[in-house]
Design brief:
By secondary structure, this protein is mainly alpha-helical. It is 72% helix and 10% strand. A 3-stranded mixed beta sheet has the order 1-2-3, with helices on both faces. Helix 8 runs antiparallel to helix 9.
């Protein structure tokens, strides 16, 4: 996804969450609702998260230099992981604490109509932000299912906002259920129960975010189509006898480093092999501009297979 699209998604979410957080805190202060206070904390955490994502996007866009020859793309993955930790530690933690305190010392919610109005306005803002993020995510995922696209996505800015907004909408429904049941049943303790429900929603979303961003941070392969394209280009070159295999690493949302194992024709001279490598690299980068570096190793198919078998055997030996 282009950087401008990611910025758009994050900026829309930032503006909406900031206004919603202010409204929720004002309503919580006037009415004394525990669920509304938890929702205010939720929106405040989301606002901070969007600021961190914008910072990560700006840092990740810096060009490669001597200290980071493959660029700074993983900065975005780092800040996305921090976002996941903030959602879990601050959002879920404060909501759970507030819910427990309200259950221990329940108090009736004053002026409940204000809470309902704030929830309705929040739903409109959160829904608008969610729709923008969903539209961009759908444009990117193609024919993939939503869960599969989430697992394969290399742009955490968009799927983080989409997951945050989905959790926010679900949290609003939990808060509404808590407020309505507390009022109709004259059981103010249910308002505190709703806060704990919001904490559970935030914890689940934080764990999902942490799992996905951790994989990106420590190094995931690029989408399979990138490796398949490199293999097809190499196999179609007259100077290559056999294209053995490709290994890729995603360095950022639009940065991929790849290595190709290939066996060249015996009759080629060193300059001809170099020219062949240059052709493959040029075509690969034209097909997939996200490839920032392609390393090609002359290697027989037997050596490649032996090396792969050794790596797989080590992996099975280390597996618990």
């Amino acid at each position: 996804m282009p950087a401008s699209a990611s910025h758009k998604v994050v900026l829309v979410a930032l503006g909406g969450n900031l206004m919603i957080a202010i409204a929720k805190f004002v309503a919580a202060g006037i009415t004394g609702s525990s669920a509304m206070l938890s929702e205010g904390v939720h929106s405040l955490v989301d606002t901070v998260n969007e600021l961190l994502l914008l910072y990560g996007l700006r840092r990740a866009a810096r060009p490669a230099d001597r200290t980071h020859p493959f660029g700074y793309g993983r900065e975005l993955y780092f800040w996305s992981f921090i976002v996941a930790l903030l959602v879990l530690a601050m959002g879920a933690g404060v909501s759970f604490y507030e819910g427990v305190m309200h259950i221990r010392q329940p108090e009736p919610v004053a002026r409940p109509l204000m809470n309902y109005l704030v929830l309705a306005v929040s739903f409109v803002f959160e829904g608008s932000s969610w729709w923008v993020a969903l539209r961009e995510f759908r444009a990117r995922k193609g024919r993939l299912g939503y869960f599969e696209a989430f697992r394969l996505s290399k742009d955490p800015a968009t799927f983080t906002v989409l997951l945050e907004d989905s959790a926010a909408l679900l949290g609003l429904l939990v808060a509404l259920a808590g407020l309505v049941s507390a009022q109709l049943l004259a059981q103010p303790v249910l308002d505190g129960v709703a806060s704990i429900g919001i904490a559970a929603v935030l914890s689940l979303s934080a764990l999902l975010l942490a799992r996905e961003t951790k994989g990106l941070l420590i190094g995931e392969p690029a989408h399979p189509v990138v490796g398949e394209a490199i293999l097809a280009i190499a196999a179609g070159d007259a100077g290559v006898r056999c294209a053995n295999g490709v290994l890729t690493v995603q360095m950022g949302p639009s940065q991929v480093v790849a290595t190709l194992s290939a066996e060249f024709e015996d009759a080629l001279t060193t300059p001809q092999i170099e020219a062949c490598i240059n052709r493959i690299e040029k075509q690969a980068k034209q097909a997939h501009p996200e490839i920032v570096s392609l390393f090609i190793k002359p290697q027989t198919a037997e050596t490649w297979r032996a090396r792969r078998h050794m790596i797989e055997a080590e992996g099975r030996h280390r597996a618990p």
